[in-house]
Amino acid sequence: MIVIIDYKMGNIFSVQKRLEKLNQEFIVSADPAIIAKADRLILPGVGHFAVAMENLRNTGLIEVLNQAVLIDKIPILGICLGMQLMCRYSEEGNCKGLGWFDAEVVKFKFEDTLRYKVPHTGWNTISIEKESPLMQHIPVDSEFYFIHSYYMKANNKSDVLNYTDYGMKFASAISKDNIYGFQYHPEKSHDVGELLLQNFLEV
Amino acid sequence: MLRPRIIPVLLLKGNVLVKTIGFKNPKYIGDPINAVKIFNDLRADELVFLDIDASKEKRTISLDFIKVISEEANMPFAVGGGIRSLDDIRNIISAGAEKVIINSYAIENPDFISEAAAAFGSSTIAVCIDVKKSWIGGRKTWTYGGSKASSYSPVALAQLMEKKGAGEIIIQSIDKDGEMKGYDLELVKQISEAVSIPVVALGGASTMQDLKDGHEIGFANGLAGGSMFVYQGSKRGVLISYPDKEERFIPIVR
What we know:
The structure holds two protein chains of two kinds.
Chain A: E1 2-5, H1 13-21, E2 26-29, H2 32-36, E3 40-43, H3 49-58, H4 61-71, E4 76-79, H5 81-84, E5 87-90, E6 95-96, E7 101-107, E8 120-125, E9 127-128, E10 143-148, E11 150-154, E12 160-165, E13 169-176, E14 179-182, H6 190-201
Parallel strand pairs in A: 1-2, 1-3, 3-4, 4-14, 5-7
Antiparallel strand pairs in A: 5-6, 7-11, 8-10, 9-12, 12-13, 13-14
Chain B: E1 5-13, E2 16-21, E3 24-30, H1 32-41, E4 47-51, H2 63-72, E5 77-80, H3 86-94, E6 99-102, H4 104-108, H5 111-120, E7 125-133, E8 139-143, E9 148-149, H6 154-164, E10 168-173, H7 185-194, E11 199-202, H8 208-216, E12 222-225, H9 227-230, E13 231-232, E14 237-238
Parallel strand pairs in B: 1-4, 1-12, 4-5, 5-6, 6-7, 7-10, 10-11, 11-12
Antiparallel strand pairs in B: 1-2, 2-3, 7-8, 8-9, 13-14
């Protein structure tokens, strides 16, 4: 069963709707017993990094997720803030993350504020940096929907799955073993996003 | 490479879509769900829904409506209409919208934008600024569907909203609404130069050239329109359209 982790950080409805369209059964839950038995986990999220970490801590989910992901190796998909939480640290709220990736989350800062607005909002392309089941049949020039003010700086190049260009090259997706994180929103990215979700369900 | 977004703006009156001219004379366009299905097929970048009577009638855009849209839409969408509380925003985001759009209440209570940005993140909060040219010259901002003048200039208001934590400014020309003669480019450019958050141009677009001008001359990051996407021809026959994949590609200005 797919479990969408419910830690009160908004916008799970669209993920639910996309899974329904793919004829998938799922549960939205924060229950450790249910999470432990999942065969797929999805960690969505919109909002403030430090608030999200606090919600995970207050609901006892940090230990539960560490067990499920790092020890039981359940495949997990992080989206947007959900991906950022997988990193070691974020500037947003000066806060430690789950630390699954050796990466920091920092704010976009540009001198040319006429050309480069923050948040980075809209449809942008990705490069595919390594072979991954999640990138199966995804065309190289595919556009995905982005909306974020903070981006990930990955210290291990081998973790980077996609780069995207916005004033500079930043890691827009990351993966290691059973862990996949996407800065962009597959659930909002038309057919190609649906394909990516489908790929995750077949991992 | 990021490219400017092309955004159909759909106006709700009751349960149906309408289109106005100068914020007046709403004409029936059709059923919103049907429109979303067509925009899905046309792979639209993003959609905006505005309930044009909500603020005046002291209510919030219908949550049931947002849920139905969310079930259909394969792309991000934003909604506005009578939003006045953090609960309103929470409900709307939980119902599947990517962003909320705040107009009247942002101007009455700018601190509400700070609270909203702190709770939901700046990228969730867009502010729509409605602008009319004044008969004595210059431009003024308006609220409640263009019925109540505010004391802020467009630039001052955009900068205040950015400072309070808004993640996007939709700059709408009331004079140009429905005229289909192009954006108020001078206004759009002023706002783009004044803030470092994304700016969406709205009001007057009718051709791809208008959209290109919005980006190349006005530096807008989002190119929104109403009539352009729901009307066809000089007689304004209702027909939903959207530029195809090649046509919609507007290179970023260098």
